[in-house]
Amino acid sequence: MAYAQPHPRLSVLSTTSQSSVDHPSPTTSSTRFSLPATVTPNKLSARPNIYDRNLNKTRVSEVSASAFSFLFSEVVQYTQKRVSGINDLERRLNTLGYRIGTRVLELMVWRAESSSKTPKREIRFLPALMSIHTQVWKAVFGKPADAIEKSVENADEYMIIDNDPPIERHITVPRDMSQLSCSSFTAGIVEAVMDGLGFPARVTAHNTPTAQFPSRTTILIKLEQSVLDREELLK
Question: Does pTM surpass 0.70?
């Protein structure tokens, strides 16, 4: 029986493909309907998984400063478009920093307990503040802070000074927003660590520029009364 040939404009397969359909062969197939090769399980398992990394081996790893600056600038711009003022912007940056601070403290405590047979937890405020000044700053920014100061007027206020905050090196604040301190992100990190260590406080960031250090920033820590009462009992 003779079959009618399809119209050339309605043909889907080429002449070569049509002949292969009429006479199927295991060595000939249409490239139009070819499927990609399947990935073997060995190739999938060979891909690196961040959850399989040893946390102690990445202790001294560094992040590109340019990549961090670009990411943080995008975070600030994204947040700025969704706030109504400077105070709201600083509050949101503080909240983002708080989330980072909880993870930084968790990682530091885990590493300290895994590397020491007798891990120690600070119960006095000044040693805990010194650990934030040195260890936390090194873990986050790769260097310790520059100074710690105590308020002369208020007994519940302490300050951490950073003369050149890495977080603000590549950020230019407009003149109409001169009161903005992007280090509110850092203040959130410090506040989270303080809360996690058992020293609840309100932490804010303030611009205190000098002629030598135009980006100088002061992280102001205002302790709760319960912390001061406990310090008095431990004396």
Answer: yes
